[in-house]
Amino acid sequence: MSESYDYLFKFLVIGSAGTGKSCLLHQFIESKFKEDSSHTIGVEFGSKVVPVSGKQVKLQIWDTAGQERFKSVTRSYYRGAAGALLVYDVTRRDSFNALANWLADARSLASPNIVVLLVGNKSDLESQREVTFLEASRFAQENELMFLETSAKSGQNVVEAFSKCAKAIVTKIESGELDPDRIGSGIQYGNLKPTRNSASAATGRSCPCKV
Amino acid sequence: MAAPRAQPEADCSDDSSQDWSIVSTVPDKYGFFGQEHVQTNHPPVPREVVLSREKKWLRMLSNWDYFMQEKHSKLRKRCRKGIPHSLRPRAWQFLCGAQALQDKHKVLYQSLTEQPGDPKCLDDIKKDLHRQFPQHEMFCSENGVGQQELFLVLKAFSVLDPEVGYCQAQAPLAAFLLMHMPTEQAFWCLVSVCHKYLNGYYSHGMQQIQIDGDILFGLLKKVAPQVYRHLKRQKIEPVLYMTEWFLCAYTRTLPWSTVLRVWDMFLFEGVKVLFKVGLVLLKGSLQPRLKRCPTMYETLEAIRQPPPGLLEEEALVQHMLRLKLTEEDFQKEHSRQVAKRQKRLQH
């Protein structure tokens, strides 16, 4: 509880089973690859403060079980998420084909305005690739998603994925497109200033009271 | 997969200041590498006691129907004291009725493993084989015997019960059973647990686990009203903390010796044992720390890190036995939650 931050965002990590969601979260928080991990049953969570556009943003990340039947259980923690990483495995076409379903769930259960970043994980397994970068970026474009390929194993683009998604949310707050005060926005103010009133007026200036 | 490493878990609990954990580089007596062990305040069970218990259990196992029908409370008492480790696998097979199932369907297991099975199911199973207890000597090597057996057991189940097929939460159960007995026996125990004890947990929709979550929460109100109010105020739904506990029957939650004691009781007394463990965990993890849990996040973190002393086998069992809950309390809460859910579905 000692860390200071301007905002707290609720994040989801969703996608089919075995795409590496928990390993992405672990790599992001611990900066190392979880070699012998077990699969998630129900939900796991973690948090980390990252610097984003001159602000300190605490990401509270919910990592979900990937198997289809867990959706009826996991839907209760979709509610009020501000951002999501939508993960598929570049070496498994079926995980890519399932994306539309996952995306529909995120938008209907969390919020229609949820900021989603598409993540093609396991980019280190180039020889086993089944989904091309081009194909995935087309899907991202059609569905208005940001897109990155990552490797939870090597760490490539992992921090970037979380930061990029967080940055998009900060930008939307500053432009007034997202209202943190709206119920279920998935955004909370932190213990640093500026608070409430100055949030939308703070466009273009860095936090004046940063310690 | 990399060789198992001895690595201390992150120190995450403020209650772990005492010297309660030791990290080893050789597998422990349960077959795990690099595990932490709860240092117990209770002296180990003396050898004479173990021998005398073994004698008693041998007598019971050779006269099972009589004890099951006539000596119910004696059997319950002995399960609560803990089944001698040497006889555990056999006792479990009798307790859960797996032995009877196997006797009745002599060649079924073999024929189930020989059928082709649903490709989607098999694919899902294969994705999880290397992810079950990777620190255990039986499951740590890719395509090792343990992983092959795990595949057979899960596949056989999915063929036997295509409606359930394969649920990811079944893999830890199957692996846990395989650590104690051969594949065919483990399979029938799995069938018994999934069909008799935890029926409805693993099917599509997973309704039953949600109902049981609500029942757990309802019972918490009776056992620890303060904790109940705290969780209610922070709008923490039961599925957020109890899904893995119940679906995996604590095999991924408790120290190993405690898991075994819980299973000794679970297989005799049934699912209410899972409720009792859950209530002890919730109360013991939160009651003393409510002030340190201002938001949902700290609360869930606290639930995830119970005070280590609470998890020690004898302590946990004693806490469970001290809970003031009657059979009627369970029944009443169950009817209440089922009615509530039906009402909600109608609207």
List keywords for this structure.
heterodimer; A: 211 residues; alpha/beta; Rossmann fold; seven-stranded mixed beta sheet; 7 strands; 29% helix; 24% strand; disordered C terminus; B: 347 residues; mainly alpha; 19 helices; disordered N terminus
If you had to describe this structure to a student in words, what would you say it looks like?
The complex is a heterodimer of chains A (211) and B (347). Chain A has one domain: Rossmann fold (3-Layer(aba) Sandwich), CATH 3.40.50. Chain A is 29% helix and 24% strand. Chain A contains seven helices and seven strands; from the N terminus they run E-H-E-E-H-E-H-H-E-H-E-H-E-H. Chain A has helices at 21-30, 71-74, 93-97, 99-110, 133-142, 158-174, 198-201, and strands at 7-15, 43-52, 55-64, 83-89, 115-121, 146-149, 187-189. In chain A, strands 1, 2, 3, 4, 5, 6 and 7 form a seven-stranded mixed β-sheet that branches. Chain B is built from 19 helices and no strands. Chain B has helices at 47-61, 64-70, 72-81, 88-95, 98-104, 108-114, 119-128, 145-160, 170-178, 183-197, 207-223, 225-233, 239-247, 256-269, 272-286, 296-304, 308-311, 313-322, 327-346. Chain B is globular and about 55 Å long. Mean pLDDT of chain B is 91; it is low at 1-21. Chain A binds chain B through residues 1, 17-18, 35-39, 41-43, 45, 47, 60, 65, 67-70, 72-73, 76-77, and chain B through 1-2, 4-5, 124, 127-128, 131-135, 140, 167-169, 171-172, 202-207, 209-210, 237, 239-240, 243-244, 247-248, 252, 294, 297-298, 300. Chain B: This is Rab-GAP TBC domain-containing protein. Chain B: GO terms for molecular function: GTPase activator activity; small GTPase binding. Chain B: It comes from Cloeon dipterum.
